[in-house]
Design goal:
By secondary structure, this protein is mainly alpha-helical. It has a domain of 72 residues. Helices cover 47% and strands 0% of the residues. The protein has four helices and no strands. The longest helix has 22 residues. The protein is elongated and about 115 Å long.
């Protein structure tokens, strides 16, 4: 394990700082599947995970989350009922009305009273 390697290096006269330990653990994480690339990026730039214990705790929580997600994912069943695709993908926009210059009745025909 990492702690054994650190102890052996310390005994040999080469001490590794905790920050170096954290970076080495992060670098050792797999790059596949794609999810782990995101985890590595977040852990590398996080200000909250600077100790080996914090990294270990975060990785354990992430592993538990992945197990929970994958087991609940198996419960999803997709039906094969055909759906009406009539309105699928259409975007309806409200057409703005043109600006009226002369008030609310400017476009309407107005009756004029005639004398006669």
């Amino acid at each position: 394990t990492m702690s054994v390697m650190v102890r052996d290096l310390k005994a040999a006269g080469r001490e590794i700082s905790e920050e170096e330990q954290v970076l080495n653990v992060i670098r050792a994480l797999p790059s596949q599947p794609e999810h782990w690339k995101h985890v590595k990026l977040v852990m590398t730039h996080s200000e909250h995970m600077k100790t080996f214990a914090e990294i270990q705790s975060h990785l354990e929580m992430e592993e538990e989350r992945l197990k929970t997600f994958s087991s609940s994912n198996a419960l999803v069943v997709k039906g094969n009922r055909l759906r009406d695709n009539k309105n699928r993908g259409r975007v309806y926009k409200k057409v703005p009305r043109p600006y009226k210059k002369n008030g609310p009745m400017s476009g309407a025909v107005q009756k004029q009273k005639t004398k006669g």
